[in-house]
Amino acid sequence: MASMLRQTIRSLPTACQISSRSISCSSHLQSPAVQAKTKKTLAKPGVKNVVIVDGVRTPFLLSGTTYADLMPHDLARTALQGLLQRTNVPREVVDYIVYGTVIQEVKTSNVAREAALGAGFSDKTPAHTVTMACISSNQAMTTGVGLIASGQCDVIVAGGVEFMSDVPIRHSRKMRKTMLSLNKAKTLGQRLSVISRIRPNYFAPELPAVAEFSTSETMGHSADRLAAAFSVSRVEQDEYALRSHTLAKKAQDAGLLSDIIPYKVPGRETVEKDNGIRPSSMEQMTKLKPAFIKPHGSVTAANSSFLTDGASAVLIMSEEKALAMGYKPKAYLRDFVYVSQDPKDQLLLGPTYATPKVLETAGLTLADIDVFEFHEAFAGQILSNLKAMDSDWFAQNYMGRKTKVGAPALDKFNMWGGSLSLGHPFGATGCRLVMAAAHRLKKEGGQYGLVAACAAGGQGHGMIVELYPQ
Q1: I want to staple 290 with a disulfide (CB 3.0 to 4.6 A). Which of 139, 168, 297, 446 is the partner?
Q2: Are 249 and 28 in contact (CB under 8 A)?
Q3: What is the spatial distance between Cα 453 and Cα 430, in angstroms, rounded to a whole number?
Q4: pLDDT digits over 81-140, tens only?
Q5: Is-above-0.85 flag for pTM?
């Protein structure tokens, strides 16, 4: 596939030509809230309206920094406590808690339950943890939507957490088997016999997998190959990464990242903002060497998302329940889809497949969308998706569609930064995307937002967020 894509897509528009506006840092970040232009609502007869009341997240920090001595459930607990404080929702009203995570801490395998108990929720409130790579908290939210839509629950807390500062490292399988055998040995002779079989290579540790199990390829390699297939240059990737950091810094300085709650880290300072936002310059970025395919790759540390610690939480209710409790919701959570495709050559193309599908489900077109919030795993991944979405050839040959869906206009796209700059705690990013969409809709006077993300395994997610009537 890669060679076919390279040969055919070289004639497609460059990434900067996809939108009528160039990659820029729009000044409308500072504009006041605008009254939304009312379009049709996506409410469906006989289906409960599900709303997001509010959401919070801890500051997203580079792994190995201020959160380094914590545990995942510490961050998740803090997000849950912050949500309770911001919304004043009584703990006993919450019917269910769902949390997403990817690399699980073995001591708290069901981190949703441990964090909930630590945050003071009743031990009668069920909680479970889901994992779906980078769309884990997306899955947590849509699980909550399903519970409400089916009439099982009225009030759900969903969220996600990832803690990359301390990931589980195992003994080798040979050593694990030896230790289990040693535990079963009953006599001194049996124990000595087991110990005598240990060899030096038994002590080699096993790190968490950074490669796809099905392909044995790291995501960075996939991103590099994808960028090459779609002829996305190193310059384009660096320009996009610089855009992400510049927009994030403007949003941070303007106080627009209002879902962040301060966190007093025990024994350390109070953290109040993300620490990975670092606008640089093209000159500095060009000095970095390829991170994955050396020496000719185009993916570098500067145009990739970084290992991040952080947690998020959102309060989801049926509209009827929210209004009965006196809440003014932020937005409706409308149609959503999950997609999956070839994990080898299309690992990171989830948004391309999810976008037209969720638009059709909702009865919308790309032109109806006022705000786009796409997960930025790599600059090359984002730009490749934009090219794929704007290609009739790709739609016809790979998606079974007659025509392309089109590419989002960049002046509607990730205007407050994205995962490249804000950070990407795998299990927590989905909630950040939804809250950013909701807040931007209100700020910019839009009605519909589209959230999309890719995930390991060649999977993806798309969701329509509709501003709650103001």
Answers
A1: 297
A2: no
A3: 8
A4: 999 999 999 999 999 999 999 999 999 999 999 999 999 999 999 999 999 999 999 999
A5: yes
pLDDT digits (tens, 9 = 90+) for 230-273: 999 999 999 999 999 999 999 999 999 999 999 999 999 999 99
* Strand, helix or coil for residue 340: strand
Q: Which of 16, 134, 153, 431 is labelled catalytic?
A: 134
Residues with Cβ within 8 Å of 140's Cβ and at least 6 positions away in sequence, in order, are: 98, 99, 100, 130, 158, 159, 160, 430, 431
Contact 305, 176 (CB under 8 A): no
25 is catalytic: no
Residue 319 corresponds to which amino acid? E
Q: What is the DSSP letter of 345?
A: T
Return d(Cα 443, Cα 361) in angstroms, integer.
26
Which of 16, 25, 153, 454 is an active site residue? 454
Among 80, 75, 134, smallest CA distance to 105 is for: 75
- 431 catalytic per annotation: no
Distance separating alpha carbons of residues 362 and 352, to the nearest angstrom: 16
Could you tell me which of 141, 435, 468 has the C-alpha nearest to residue 329? 468
**CA distances for 470 relative to 35, 331, 384, angstroms:** 8, 10, 36
DSSP characters for 107-132?
A: GGSSHHHHHHHHTT--TTS-EEEE-B
Q: What distance in Å separates the CA atoms of residue 288 and residue 291, rounded to the nearest whole number?
A: 8
